[in-house]
Each structure stands twice: as C-alpha cells, then as structure tokens.
Description:
Layout: E1 13-17, H1 21-32, E2 38-39, E3 60-64, E4 67-72, E5 91-94, H2 98-111, E6 119-120, E7 126-132, E8 138-144
Parallel strand pairs: 1-4, 5-8
Antiparallel strand pairs: 2-3, 3-4, 6-7, 7-8
Amino acid sequence: MSEQIVKPLGLAHVRVTVTDIHRSKAFYEQLLGTAPAMDFSDHIDEPGITEDRERLYGGAIFPVGEQLFGLRPVAPSGQRFDPDTVGLDHVSFVVGSVDDLHAAAERLDAAGIEHGEVTDLGDAGMVILSVQDPDDINLELAAQK
C-alpha cells in the first residue's frame, strides 16, 4: 500500500448532469424542501452559459446539510441516465430516521412521484427508499437502523 495522498474530511459537493434545468430544479426543490443556494437557471438561454463555470453552467446548487448538491444542465435533450456506465451509480441522501423514510414515501405518494419501497439492507445497518429524478438518476434516501 502506498502513502496516503490526502485525508478527506467529507464531500464538499456532488453535481449531476441534467437535460432540463427547470424541470430538475423544480423536482429537487420539492424533494429537498429548499430553494437553491445559488441559481443561474434563469440564464440558461444565454449564449455561452453552458460553458461558464462561474455561472454554474446555467445550473443551480442546493444546500444539503453541510454539503452542496448541484445540477449542471448540459446533457442533450432526451438523453437518459445509465448507472451501468462509468461514472455515477446513484446519490444517497441521509435522513434522520427510518420514520422519516416512511413519511417521505407518503409525501412522494401524495405528490404522484413513483418510488421504491422502504427497504432494510440487513447487515449494512441502514434502511433506504429509492426514487428516480426526471433524468432517471437513482436517488436514495437512507437512514441508519
């Protein structure tokens, strides 16, 4: 084993690529219950915005605890997420309790958003609830048992 290069303290942010910033932003506002901390989605039709890092490529960033979750709207319209290619498999958001997962399932039902079952992962020590975002990115809500 080689010498450790860095000792991370956590993740600063995760950003996913989306096809339609307005659709994705609305979904994540509803899912996370918060507005973006930074939002350039109103500029999405401006020339060069999808190449402008300082304006988040026309995307948005949501606060999630002490981390950030971003949307980068540069994928071609109609493209769908594929967890079986190199890159992201899924994003998992921690919630406070298993009861929070059941409450989330009820709220997803009320909003007409399809989702999986609240599932106990056994020896992994967690319980999860899966839901797909508008680009079919697999999201997991997870609570420790």
